[in-house]
Amino acid sequence: MTPNLQERVTDALSRIRNNRLGANVLEAEMIRDIATTTDGKVRLSLFLTPDDDATVVREVRQTLQQVPGVTDVRVDVKDASQANKPSTRAAAVGTTTSRAATAPSASTAPPTPKSAASRTLPVMGQEPQSQRAAVPAPTPVAYPNLGNIIAISSGKGGVGKSTVASNLAVALAKQGARVGLMDADIYGPNIPRMMGINAAPPVENEKIIPLQAHGVKIMSLGFMIERDQPAIWRGPIIMKIITQFLRDVQWGELNYFLVDMPPGTGDAQLSLVQATMVHGAIIVTTPQEVASGDALRGAKMFERVAVPVLGIVENMSYFICPNCEAKHRIFGSGGGKRLADELNVPLLGEIPFFPGVLSGADRGEPIVVSEPETPAAQALFELAGRLKGLL
After folding, report:
1. 350: left (phi > 0), else alpha (psi -120 to 50), else beta?
2. Which residues pair with 260 in a beta bridge?
3. How far apart are CA 49 and CA 38, in angstroms?
């Protein structure tokens, strides 16, 4: 007798192991609320602890996509510490999408003492069912022509994230790669100024043609709005802009597609990972503890959504005295290395503080173009080489 879809799904999940516990994800009770429909849609809840490898989310999704008869997969990631209520292992199969398939009930959170109730912060995915959006999160779309999609992110502003993104893109291009740079910093698009280009991009055959500078294809909201126009937009608009920049821009065939993210862990980051399959993230920080602490939260956000953190870049790491050539760590020391060790990822680069980086960005000349022999430019070229080696 041929097994039904529910049995095939369960069998596939039983082959995915949690190496930390030495058991498969079903035995480890990481999977709950499995729901299937007769037209092949599968939805389930996946509970993770901070110690679990977040890549299991992608493994579950990709495994189920290979199951015969499965037409769509949705994995709802939840915090395992909030899952203390037993839930049904599987939902019944119906002729249309069942209630469990479209909106499985949230696990009940532990009771909160009355004295702490006013201080309790909401956790994504644990809000009451009545407050949840009725529309499910979109399934990420693959864009193989974009090559390796890399998010350049930070936990806070002012650490030089856009400077690193623009110089890294140009350094990769100078090393022979085909590179695209998307400015996803909706609220503060600085890439046009840093790359020295600002014009309305042309449209041909209903496709936006990206502008080019220093051998890099570029798209930014800054090309489309006035310099003094504030972007007062909520999440759905940001999602639409990011999706349009991915889908409706004629990028051509690329090796690397760098995305300059806004600071923090907000709508733009979630929109990007919902819109496409991001191959990895680079976290930019400075040596101070306050910066690396914010960067840690940014890195953990990517881990929670199954995007691997490729490594840490410590910007403004030290200043080289022009007279004695001694290194002065004017912003503290060790923050990037400690962050990399905590996340168990490599420290990809330590970029020295150099005034020419700032003045070059204001002129639209990345330091790897204007002064390629300086220590800052050399550190950025080495960063490009390490990124190529990782991927």
Report:
1. beta
2. 152, 183
3. 32
Q: What is the pLDDT of residues 223-252, one digit of tens each?
A: 887 766 666 666 678 888 888 899 999 999
Determine if residue 153 is left, alpha or beta; phi over 0 gives left, psi from -120 to 50 gives alpha, anything else beta: beta
The whole-angstrom separation of Cα 41 and Cα 74 is 8
Angle between helices 55-65 and 5-13 (to 10 degrees): 140
Say how far apart CA 186 and CA 327 lie, in whole Å: 36
Burial (CB < 10 A; 0-12, 13-18, 19+), residue 202, is exposed
Q: Provide the pLDDT confidence category of residue 215 given band limits of 50, 70 and 90.
A: very high
Which helix (H) or strand (E) segment is 43 a member of? strand 41-48
With tokens 């037209």, the residue in question is: 39
Token output for 237 = 């608009």
298 Cβ neighbours under 8 A, 6+ residues apart: 153, 154, 155, 264, 265, 269, 283
Q: For residue range 298-320, what is the model confidence (pLDDT) as tens digits? A: 888 888 888 899 999 999 888 88
pLDDT at 268 over 60: yes
Q: Are 379 and 349 in contact (CB under 8 A)?
A: yes
Instruction: Give the predicted TM-score (pTM) of the model.
Output: 0.64
Q: How far apart are CA 163 and CA 381, in angstroms?
A: 13
Nearest alpha carbon to residue 375 among 349, 344, 352, 358:
352
| Token code pair at residue 235 | 């999440």
Q: Would you call 372 helix, strand, or coil by DSSP?
A: coil
Give the number of other CB atoms < 10 A from CB of residue 96.
10
Where do runs of H (alpha helix) occur along the chain? 5-13, 55-65, 99-102, 114-117, 161-174, 191-195, 235-247, 267-275, 289-304, 335-343, 355-363, 367-370, 375-390
Query: Concatenated DSSP letters for 241-252?
Result: HHHHHHHSB---
